[in-house]
Amino acid sequence: MPLLILGTATEFDEFVRLAEFVDKVDATSWQVFMPKEVDKALFLKLLVFYDEDVSEGAGMRIHRMAKAADELMPTRRVMKIGNALWKQRQ
User: How buried is residue 76: exposed, middle or buried, by Cβ count under 10 Å (0-12/13-18/19+)?
Assistant: First the structure.
């Protein structure tokens, strides 16, 4: 999910519910960042297993982090985002 959020061409300035997020993800980003077996219809069925509040908060945090790194050189941007995502996992 974090890579899908980062790969999405849409800007999010407010919370977006997961069902709405699926509609905002372009087909190319979906194919690149999601497993082949998970199409949008299946993902919508799986939403019952996601905590909406946690997902929304994480999505906004990921977008703020990416936006904060926009002015960096590409390699530095990747390092900053990668390090931040790694720290979140621990």
Answer: exposed
pLDDT of amino acid 3: 63
Give the separation between CA 85 and CA 45, rounded to whole angstroms: 27
Cβ neighbours of residue 49 closer than 8 Å, sequence gap 6 or more: none
- Cα–Cα separations (whole angstroms), residue 84 to 50, 59, 78: 22, 13, 10
What's the Rg (C-alpha) of the chain? 13
What global pTM score does this model have?
0.59
Check: CB of residue 60 under 8 Å from CB of residue 9: no
pLDDT band at 14 (very low <50, low <70, confident <90, very high): low
